[in-house]
């Protein structure tokens, strides 16, 4: 079973991920998580420790795994190549970075599809699509709809959003707490993060119109988080476990 989260930075994806992992762990269910470029790893999100967004070890791992992907030619009929071709980026640097991230993300998705068990993508293909639109040379909602026609669908897709001022406050707090090198390498900045919120909402509407298995969550309401976690565990996880 694949559960995918998407939404702007600061909306609460990591908080929801941890809640889902903890709820599944209490039921004795083993879950693996995937975050962006990182390949499948066992649920480190299950602990209650403070969030570590990147760290030097993860930065080193990303750099080490980038070169082989950058030097390779992606299969033209593969999801990664089609996604990158559908929404050309205005910056060559971002084109290289997104090639690495999306190629590795597609590999993680392939492994999850071919495996049994539960997988939660904190930043999956829909999140990558939103990032591409944000960085695109000429953003187009028609290109988004065309892309959704060939992207694989998860079993459950959760859209997390929050009011714009809540997102702004959270992003400012996040940037103030992070080392400069991590902000430069990984974060889009406060204003770009807020713009991605608008893009995520437009993509969410396209998903709804396309009949995707979409659930919306208010990232500013902890009670809504609890309600959604109970719903996922009751309607999807338990039914799948019984089947």
UniProtKB/TrEMBL annotation:
The keyword Nucleotidyltransferase applies. InterPro entries: ATPase_AAA_core, P-loop_NTPase. It comes from the Bacteria. Keywords: Nucleotidyltransferase, Transferase. GO terms for molecular function: ATP binding; ATP hydrolysis activity; nucleotidyltransferase activity. This is Sulfate adenylyltransferase. It comes from Rhizobium loti.
